[in-house]
User: Fold this.
Amino acid sequence: MSDEAAAALTVERVGRVMVLHLDDGKANALSFELIAAIDAAVTEAEADDDIGAVVVHGRPGRFSGGFDLSVMYGDDLYRIIDLVATGGALVRRLYGASVPVAAACTGHAVAGGALLLLGCDVRIGADIPAKIGLNEVAIKMVLPDWAFTICDDRLSTRHRQRAVANARLSPPSEAVDVGFLDEVVPESEVLERAIAVAADLADTLDPRAYLGTIIKLRGAVLSRMDEQIAADRAAGRVRDDRAG
Assistant:
């Protein structure tokens, strides 16, 4: 793990729950390094029979502000495409993990941060003034295909138009109805509640039955996301070759 990722990610074990604390001191931007560190931690959790669930926990007031802006606003198109595809692979990884994943959403979760929430089984949000959602259209971007796929699977049909095409950001209380969160609790209780939910899942769900159910329940979505992420990477390589 790089020094940057080590500083932004702290791993803690609470009983049978692995808690991933994200805190880069700023917006919890999804950089290549942080994405790799989260992925490695999930791999560790899946390989450990003593771990039955994972919690992804943000910093005070911030779950994640999305993809690393130093890359997204740079002039290296291939690197931009690669970062978004790598983020998509992480969201897909969480959604297809062999252990349940809960989110302790401590505040703002925008763009890639909101997509990260969609990859988690259960999302507990803090009852504070915060913005949650997909603002890509407002900042002159179109979501990648893999993001549309998971949005279709997880967001409320009634809210999808406004949440995706109209770039509407919601406060936590409304984000439950939209589909980004499952419940909202006082800020001081977010992590405790997420760990309690994760611990209950770890204790009550049979691991083999859970994985078998995930494969059947989400298999088509996961396969579609795999195809779309691979296509994005391939298109990025072609553009990079032409630029060179």
Observations:
- The two ends are 31 Å apart (CA to CA).
